[in-house]
Design goal:
The protein is of the alpha/beta class. 42% of the residues lie in helices and 19% in strands. It binds 2-acetamido-2-deoxy-beta-D-glucopyranose (NAG).
């Protein structure tokens, strides 16, 4: 009997210990609930998450919205890849968290925003991703530099994909910055920088030109000018990206 009682008391103690432990865990969870490594944010914990994570990538989603489904899938895929990264991922259900979405001016697109250094007011909008790779490439390009794009010409020419290739006289020129900022905005497009002048001389071009190449075929060329903006370059690229059958006619868009 006594032994049974002792056993009972021990079991009770154990239970209390376990309960205390889960209680502790639950409190930790309660401050910032997570699912598969993704923070589930709402009005009550958004600011805390912002303070805690220097880079917070937030997907403002509406369940059951048509286009949103692909973006959600892309975000989930990226979240799986970014488990060990410095970027913390989070979601906000906009249908439930109407007040929060309104406070953050997150009622419309873009639905994915990167909050940096706890700044609630100036998130960096992530371009609408086609896939999880878009998000990963965007983060990588955003955090990197133009030098990351330097590639061998032979590699570019072997690629099946349409590649935007920049040839610049000076690698630290403003043109390179414009080129790189376009690359950040178009994470689904291959970008490369090369200093190999073969193509340039082959087509009788001069430097500071952006070429669209596909399987070593020149699709179009765009001459960079001092006034060329990132936006203009993006328009040039996206027009030809949508119409990939167009081939180079020998005319350079000066
Ligand atoms: C949302 O927009 C309003 C008006 O433009 C602005 O006052 C407010 O600071 C914005 N909120 C955030 C979080 O940026």
């Amino acid at each position: 009997m006594r032994r049974l009682l002792l056993l009972g008391v021990t079991a009770l103690c154990l239970c209390v210990f376990v309960a205390a432990d889960t209680q502790h865990d639950r409190q930790g969870d309660k401050s910032l609930p997570e699912k598969d490594g993704v923070l589930q944010l709402k009005k009550g914990n958004f600011n805390r998450a912002l303070r805690k994570h220097k880079q917070l990538l937030v997907h403002f989603y509406t369940p059951l919205s048509g286009d949103g489904h692909r973006v959600s899938a892309a975000f989930e895929g990226a979240a799986a890849e970014l488990q060990e990264s410095e970027v913390k991922l989070a979601v906000v259900d906009v249908a439930k968290e109407k007040d929060l979405a309104k406070d953050l001016n997150a009622t419309g697109p873009p639905t994915i925003r990167l909050y940096l250094a706890g700044d609630k007011h100036n998130p960096v909008p992530c371009p609408v991703p086609q896939s999880s790779a878009s998000i990963l490439t965007w983060l990588k390009r955003r955090a990197g530099s133009a030098a990351d794009l330097i590639t061998e010409l032979s590699q570019i020419e072997a690629s099946e994909e349409l590649t935007v290739v920049g040839f610049f006289k000076e690698q630290d020129h403003e043109y390179v910055q414009v080129f790189y900022s376009a690359a950040i905005e178009l994470p689904d497009v291959h970008f490369a920088l090369t200093q190999n002048s073969e193509v340039i001389s082959k087509y009788g071009l001069t430097h500071d030109v952006v070429l669209l190449l596909k399987k070593s075929k020149l699709i179009q060329a765009y001459k960079m000018m001092p006034q060329t903006s990132k936006e203009e370059l993006i328009v040039f690229i996206t027009v030809y990206q949508m119409d990939p059958v167009t081939e180079y006619t020998g005319k350079v868009e000066y």
